[in-house]
Amino acid sequence: MPDTKAKVENIIASTHFKDRFDMEKAAEVLDVKYSPDFPGLIWEDKEEGVAVIVFDNGKMILTGARTLSDVGSHFRDIAQKLKHADLISHLTLQAKVKNIMASYDLRKEVNLDLSLRNLKSGRTRYVPDDFPGIIYNVTDPNITVLIFKSGKLALTGARKMSDIDDAVEIVKRELGQGGEQ
């Protein structure tokens, strides 16, 4: 197992009830505003920075969680409230992670021009006038990594934490061939 300390910044996940339900009643139960102009309700946990959009067809999309257990607990909380109000018939939910975004600090500066030689060609984009970092597409796992001169990495596109760990190890190995200043 790779020794990384990647920090999860955001998880986007979805789940789906098998029930359709009344959005006005759901808005009351969840204590959120309802507008018939929008097909969903936006529930927020401002303390944790999590938002869940609940659609009338039973689909829920969550953003802002930092752990997979947070994803499950927020989905369960909403489902239990809707079940208690008899708006849904069962609580069985299968959360599906759509994207994990994370950051990582290499703890050393990176010479971006020199690093281009070491990273797999055809999978990098570096136009310093447009963006101050290298955009590197790792293919296995399929993760996009932004590499900055400061040594900070931003990773997106993962569906599981092991993908983040693997991508960090790949970038570290390839940058280790001469990318540090």
By CATH, the architecture of the largest domain is named: 2-Layer Sandwich
Q: What portion of the residues fall into strands of 2 or more residues? A: 25-35%
Radius of gyration from the alpha-carbon trace, in angstroms: 20 Å
Strand order in the sheet with the most strands: 2-3-4-1-5-9-8-7-6
Number of strands: 9
Order of helices and strands: EHEEEHEHEEEEH
Helix/strand layout:
Blueprint lengths: L6 E10 L6 H8 L9 E6 L4 E6 L3 E7 L2 H17 L11 E10 L6 H7 L5 E2 L7 E6 L4 E6 L3 E7 L2 H15 L6
Summarize the structure.
The chain is 26% helix and 33% strand. By secondary structure, it is α+β, with helices and mostly antiparallel strands. It has a nine-stranded antiparallel β-sheet with strand order 2-3-4-1-5-9-8-7-6, with helices on one face.
Describe the structure.
This protein is an alpha+beta fold and 181 residues long. It has 2 domains: 7-98, TATA-Binding Protein, CATH 3.30.310.10; 106-175, TATA-Binding Protein (2-Layer Sandwich), CATH 3.30.310. Helices cover 26% and strands 33% of the residues. The two termini are 28 Å apart.
Task: Provide the descriptors you would attach to this structure in a database record.
181 residues, alpha+beta, TATA-Binding Protein, 9-stranded antiparallel sheet, elongated
